[in-house]
C-alpha cells in the first residue's frame, strides 16, 4: 500500500551528527520549511524508503496513531514523560499474536512487559531477572502475570522434539517441564489437548520460578504486597483464562523454593502448586 502523500512530504530525516554517526531526526518538518538542498535530499530518501512499503506503512500508522491519541487527549503522551507507575508486570511469549497491552486493554504506562520465546522465567536469564527486579523493587508492581498461549510454537517444538538450532538450548526449559510432567501428559490422547496442557504446565512452572526469584522473595519478606498469577491466552477467541495459579506469599510455594521464613501471621497451608496441577 502506498503511503499517503502527506507522509511522504513529511518523511523523517536521517542526519549526520558531529561524531559522524547517523541519528534519526524524529521531528517531522514540511518540505516547504526546509532549505532546497535538504528538501531534495528528503524527497530522495522518501523515494528510496517507499520501496519498502512495510516500514512506510508502520511510520504512517504511527503518525496517525499519535495524532488520534493526542486529539482525544492532549496529555495522552506528555503525562508519561515524568515516569511510570504500572501496577502489573506481564511476562509473556514473544509471539506476534499475543499483544500484551491490547489483550488487557491497558494504555501506555500501565503494564511493564517482558516477552521471550515461550514465556520462560529462567534463573540464569539476566534479562528476565532484571525485568522482575526493576519492576518489583523500583516500580513496586502489585501483580506479576505469567501468560502462556495456545498454538505456541515454542511449546509445540518442545513437545514434538523438533530440533531448530541454537534456540533448542532455550527450549530445553520447556522440555524439562514436559519431562517433569510426562506421566500426566501421557494420559492425554488428544494432541491439541496435550499441547494445551503443556502450555498450562509451563505457565505453572514459570510461576514457580518467578516466586523463587530473590526480588520476589525479598519483597514478600519485607511485607510488600505482591501476587504472581498464571494465565493462558487463547488465540481463537482473544480471551484470557485464569489458570488459578496465584501465589500471594512465600508460604504458598513448595518449601524447596522457599528461601525466607513465612511471617508469623501467615500459617503455611502446605498446599503445593504442583499437587494442584
Ligand atoms: Zn508462544
Q: Which percent range fits the helix content?
A: 40-55%
Low-confidence stretches: 1-32, 261-277
List bound small molecules: zinc ion
Strand order of the largest sheet: 4-3-5-6-7
Total strands: the figure is 7
- Reported by name, the CATH topology of the largest domain is Beta-carbonic Anhydrase, Chain A
Q: Note the main sheet.
A: 5 strands, mixed
Q: Encode the helix/strand succession as letters.
A: HEEHHEHEHEHHHHHEEH
Global morphology: globular
Amino- and carboxy-terminal Cα gap: 49 Å
Could you please describe the fold and organization of this structure?
With 277 residues, this protein is an alpha/beta fold. It folds into two domains: 68 residues, no CATH class; 192 residues, Carbonic anhydrase (Beta-carbonic Anhydrase, Chain A, 3-Layer(aba) Sandwich). The chain has eleven helices and seven strands. A five-stranded mixed β-sheet has the order 4-3-5-6-7. Strands 1-2 form a two-stranded antiparallel ribbon. Helix 4 links the parallel strand 3 and strand 4. Helix 6 packs across helix 7. The longest helix is centred in the last third of the chain and has 22 residues. The N terminus and C terminus are likely disordered. Bound molecules: zinc ion.
Amino acid at each position: 500500500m502506498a503511503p499517503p502523500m502527506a507522509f511522504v512530504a513529511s518523511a523523517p530525516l536521517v542526519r549526520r551528527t558531529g561524531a559522524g554517526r547517523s541519528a534519526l531526526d524524529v521531528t517531522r518538518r514540511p518540505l516547504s520549511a526546509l532549505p532546497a538542498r535538504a528538501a531534495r535530499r528528503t524527497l530522495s530518501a522518501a523515494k528510496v524508503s517507499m520501496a519498502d512499503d512495510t516500514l512506510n506503512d508502520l511510520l504512517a500508522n504511527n503518525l496517525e496513531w499519535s495524532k488520534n491519541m493526542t486529539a482525544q487527549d492532549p496529555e495522552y503522551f506528555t503525562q508519561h514523560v515524568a515516569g511510570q507507575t504500572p501496577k502489573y508486570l506481564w511476562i509473556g511469549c514473544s509471539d506476534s499474536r499475543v499483544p500484551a497491552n491490547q489483550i488487557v486493554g491497558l494504555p501506555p504506562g500501565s503494564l511493564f512487559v517482558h516477552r521471550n520465546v515461550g514465556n520462560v522465567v529462567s534463573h540464569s536469564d539476566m534479562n528476565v531477572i532484571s525485568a522482575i527486579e526493576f519492576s518489583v523493587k523500583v516500580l513496586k508492581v502489585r501483580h506479576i502475570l505469567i501468560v502462556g498461549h495456545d498454538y505456541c510454537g515454542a511449546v509445540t517444538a518442545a513437545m514434538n522434539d523438533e530440533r531448530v538450532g541454537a534456540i533448542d538450548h532455550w527450549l530445553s526449559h520447556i522440555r524439562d517441564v514436559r519431562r517433569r510432567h510426562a506421566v500426566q501428559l501421557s494420559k492425554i490422547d488428544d494432541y491439541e489437548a496435550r499441547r494445551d496442557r503443556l502450555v498450562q504446565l509451563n505457565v505453572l512452572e514459570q510461576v514457580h520460578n518467578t516466586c523463587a526469584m530473590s526480588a520476589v522473595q525479598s519483597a514478600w519478606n519485607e511485607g510488600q504486597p505482591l501476587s504472581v498469577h498464571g494465565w493462558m491466552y487463547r488465540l481463537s477467541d482473544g480471551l484470557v483464562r485464569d489458570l488459578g495459579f496465584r501465589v500471594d506469599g512465600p508460604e504458598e510455594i513448595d518449601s524447596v523454593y522457599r528461601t525466607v521464613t513465612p511471617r508469623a501471621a501467615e500459617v503455611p497451608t502446605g498446599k503445593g502448586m504442583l499437587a494442584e496441577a
